């Protein structure tokens, strides 16, 4: 398939990723806080899911996840060899309340 380094999310996938971001970002601050993700997952291992999410996505360790960090994370998933269909499946799973999936071997360069 060739190099995945320069791959970007399609406009449709970018919109889908941001739609899920907005579901977490209930206060509309353009950042996700741990209290928001704990509320999102309710009792479905909420604290564990939150910790794994923040370990994966909060690259500047600020305690919040910005839209930029969120988009960079999903772009790195794509660049690591996952397809947009796989990303779509994972987004759908998260949207229905399933646990956070830890993706391995991602390039975690800050944006």
TrEMBL record:
It comes from the Eukaryota. Residues 45-80 form the EF-hand domain. InterPro entries: EF_Hand_1_Ca_BS (IPR018247), EF_hand_dom (IPR002048). GO terms for molecular function: calcium ion binding. This is EF-hand domain-containing protein. It comes from Paramecium sonneborni. The lineage of its organism: Eukaryota, Sar, Alveolata, Ciliophora, Intramacronucleata.
């Amino acid at each position: 398939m060739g190099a995945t380094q320069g791959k970007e999310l399609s406009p449709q996938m970018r919109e889908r990723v941001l739609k899920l971001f907005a579901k977490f970002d209930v206060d509309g601050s353009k950042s996700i806080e741990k209290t928001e993700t704990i509320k999102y997952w309710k009792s479905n291992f909420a604290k564990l899911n939150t910790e794994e999410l923040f370990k994966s996505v909060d690259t500047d360790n600020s305690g919040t996840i910005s839209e930029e960090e969120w988009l960079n994370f999903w772009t790195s998933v794509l660049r690591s060899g996952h397809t947009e269909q796989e990303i779509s499946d994972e987004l759908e799973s998260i949207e229905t309340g399933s646990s956070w999936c830890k993706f391995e071997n991602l390039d975690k360069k800050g944006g």
